[in-house]
Amino acid sequence: MDTPDADGVLAEQLLRLTRRVHRIQKRHLQQRGLGITPAQSRLLRTLAPYASPPRMTDLAERLEVVPRAVTTLVDGLEASGKVRRVPDPTNRRVIRIELTDDGRRALRELRGARRAAAEDILAPLTDEQRKVLGGLLDTLVDGMPAVED
Question: Which residue has the higher pLDDT, 2 or 69?
C-alpha cells in the first residue's frame, strides 16, 4: 500500500486555497461594481507606490509578466478612466502610466474589497491560528524561516 505524498497534498491544498481566494476577491470586486478584473486590480496596486509614473516595462517587470500583458491591462484601465498614458518629460518616445483621480478612488475600494475577502477567508481561524499562518506564509514567500522576536 502506497503512503500519501504529503508534499503533493500540501501543494494541492495551496492551489485550492489560491483558487478560493481568487473567487472570493472576484465576488467582492463585482459586489462593489468597479468593473475591474483581478489582474487590473493587481496592476493598480502595483502602480500606486511609484513616486512618478512608471514605464510599462517597469510595471511588467514588477508584475513578472510580458510587456504585452501590461498593455492589455492598461488599455482596459485607460478606457474606464482609471489610468492615463502620459509622455515622458525627457524622452518623447517613452510613455508612462499614471493613476487618475478615479483610479485612486477605485484603489481605495479595492483595498476594502481585499480586506472583506480576507475576513471571509480567515473567519474560521482563531487569532492564534492567524498569527501562526502569517508566520508560515512569510516563510513560504521569503523562502526562509521566520525569526522569532
Answer: 69
